[in-house]
């Protein structure tokens, strides 16, 4: 049993981490009332920047390269997400449409620049990706240490910690209260002296940073290079995790962990006794079918923040 | 406001122009010659009859996926699932094409109807989940895309073939391909599907503008509660809208399966026809006529782009950037309207 858990849990955490980061970004944005279909594009941008930075500066920063890469990817994606903020907050654009534009734009730019800089459709493999490590002390704990803390990516735990941080920020700080107020009833928030536009800009930029983090972590742990096929739907999965998790940071984390677990099933099935005989296709579609069933059955109606998707126009009722 | 109609026409045109200008600036900044780039694009789309045939071939599925997204949009539903609906439609069309043996007059319509039906079923599922259980259609359609992709690949490998990556070519009795059209266009892959696509656009226009069903669908899109109060069945309309939208996308799959390729192959990723359909619908302002125009524009851009690397050494992805910017400008139509109004006031 421990062997089975040991072969299931690390890959599940490994596949979940990028989804958790990005879904947390989605929670921030949507809680403030800005729908973010552009998560996919933000991940693409993060993956692109993470890989390019890593390839370019691997000699300069040595072992620290992947960590600096994901920070740079966060910054660039945060800046990139301002486009979505400008369109959906200031220009009162349809937020879904603007998000779709972000997706097209990120992929177009990423592959365009890849072709221009590397003269081919994909980059080389990075030389300094993230490696698995044992977590000191905790990995020595019998049973639990073997399952959870050996041969694990630090980014997986960073994602889980960040989910709790996000929960604390959104539910225990004045900033979080304001951010949620802006998404529920912007006019009331405005009356109370909260700057609706500013809050929404901040929320979208946070989602850009976290989306970039998710994309770069995916690129530097799973994909290891960048091409048009590096990020294919992970952003949409994260969006699903946001809604599945009822727009709550911990809920989104749980949903992302579930997706990660389901995805890892098809990868590790060969080594797990009771999964060996299941045809591959069932394991491939399992996460998606289970999501639909879960949404239809267990979770029930998921209610979005009230003002989600509605541009705020000062003075309108 | 009387000038509203004018704005509705001006905004897309200005957006397209801004997108093309931005594309030129990007080419300049990256050290390419924009004039050479756009010349290559133009030649790639209209340079000779072969390229024109290919452009029409690309426009065909774009019209249909554009309609699929636009139709659902009119009832207030966002159909990201056109992608999956295209894939199952493609599969169903080829399957019927291979499995049935009948004269053309039965075989071809049967294959086309199968594609539409498969797409409709793929749209029906998110529709009924939305209507009965309130599950967000965006998530369900995203999930249905993946289910379509993996199931289709599995069916190609283990049902339609014996572990091969591609099926046989369908018999001529189920094919939309036309030797006459191919001969006319130096053997491009142009096929009769364009007629079906244009007919579908007319169908959408007719349903939306001339029938009670269309009126109800639009009413539900505007305000569900008011429609309910007026005695309309909101859930029935949601389901119907998604199913019809799915049927349009399924037809787009038939265009690929029966027209362009004549077979179906294992796919490593999505066809992108459905995702591009979102862009087509948005630029076309979700009307049948607008979708046709937008599909023509995107078909020209996409096919023309293939010639850009050889013609001007510009990566084809430049066109994706341009398309993204066009959508972005369409979305930001508020600011374009505002600027236009400023100019108007100053002119007076």
UniProtKB/TrEMBL annotation, chain A:
Bilayer-crossing regions: 12-29, 41-61, 67-89, 96-118, 152-171, 201-220, 226-244, 256-275, 281-299
CDD domains, sorted: TM_PBP1_transp_TpRbsC_like
Record's bilayer topology term: Multi-pass membrane protein
One matching Pfam family: BPD_transp_2
UniProt KW Transmembrane helix keyword: yes
GO function term, MF aspect, one: transmembrane transporter activity
Chief place where the protein resides: membrane
Keyword Protein biosynthesis: no
This protein's name: ABC transporter permease protein YufQ
Source lineage: Bacteria, Bacillati, Bacillota, Bacilli, Bacillales
Name of the gene encoding the protein in the UniProt record: yufQ
UniProtKB/TrEMBL annotation, chain B:
Transmembrane segments: 7-29, 49-73, 80-98, 104-125, 190-208, 238-261, 273-301, 321-340
Annotated Pfam families: BPD_transp_2
Swiss-Prot/TrEMBL keywords: Cell membrane, Membrane, Transmembrane, Transmembrane helix
Gene Ontology cellular-component annotations: plasma membrane
Keyword DNA repair among UniProt keywords: no
Family matches, as InterPro entries: ABC_transp_permease (IPR001851)
Superkingdom of this protein's organism: Bacteria
Places the protein is found: Cell membrane
Cell membrane keyword on record: yes
Membrane topology term: Multi-pass membrane protein
GO MF annotations, alphabetized: transmembrane transporter activity
Protein name: ABC transporter permease protein YufP
Biological source species: Virgibacillus oceani
Taxonomic classification: Bacteria, Bacillati, Bacillota, Bacilli, Bacillales
